[in-house]
Amino acid sequence: MRPLTIGALGMTRPPTDAVVAQAQGLENDGVETIWYSDHFLHWFPPGVWTQDLVPQALPGSTPHVFLDPTALMAAVAQHTERVRLATGVTDAVRRHPAVIAQTFITLDHVTRGRSVLGIGVGEAENIVPFGMPYERTASRLIEAVEVIRLLWSTPEPVRFDGDHFRLRDAILGARPFGDAPPEIWMAAHRPRVLEATGRLADGWFPVILDAAEYGARLADLRAASVAAGRPADAVRAGLYAWLLLTDTAEEAERLLDESLLLRLVALTAPAEEFERAGAEHPLASRWGLLDFVPTELTRDEALAAAAAVPGEVMRRYYMHGTPDDVAARLATFRPAGLEHVDLVDMGPLGDPALVASAPERRRALMRRLAALD
After folding, report:
1. pTM value?
2. Least buried of 75, 134, 296, 324, by fewest C-beta within 10 Å?
């Protein structure tokens, strides 16, 4: 098993000077990969973004502010030297796979080999409100990765006949910066996409799993790699980890019970998480993260749904507490095969007062995780 490496969530809102400064700080702290979200919308219904409910809601502000991650990656590359820069994650609905292939070959050159393509099926909130199709997402993702691999494989004309994409003597002549194209990391949870990840990807990037589930799905993925004629460890095992880092365990418990924003984010958990807690998903959602569209909820509907999230879901969804607490929970994933973890600290959403001290808690957590190896 490879050494454990650390990723962190990159800033994707203005000002860009702050985006660059954050990236430089993460690189200096030893973060291996910065993952940039590819969103149009946040998970917060507009009706709740008011100062009586949300301290961050300044007059005239909106939570739905995201810059294009690929442009940010190009900008950050000019001011960093070692850290890898990744989308966490994009999709092949808003971006055609040929465009993705060209964009990431371009980033491969701009970053001098440090770009990583993180890709998944997409999320309804970034697709449905903009009138784009959102069906058969698994097969679309798998075809897209096959197309990208094909275009990266040769400068000669290629053909592809799929249900979603068709190429006719298509050429992508630009070659990688180095000996190989950018790595592809796939967000995968269900059997079909897990199999494709084992067959096609360089990295696996799931979310919302416990260690036992993680190990079982990684075993299936490893088997798929072998069945495809690849080494068992062809795919690097990652995790997108939602964290609630605080100075005391009691503070984390309070925020899990009281924070409206953290509860709204928890609506992206799948129905299985609610069923495990003996409840139904408040939005009757099967897929949570994939089909939650916050702009479809009124203020009252959003408040009612947030209030209905069971405490058990909150405590499974977020790895919470002090750096020691969170390190202990992440440590259980290492024997299950974890090789890379993206630390996504949601604490400042729960309490804006945590913003200034968040980097020090992350550094403390990184020191504890380094001791696992």
Report:
1. 0.97
2. 324
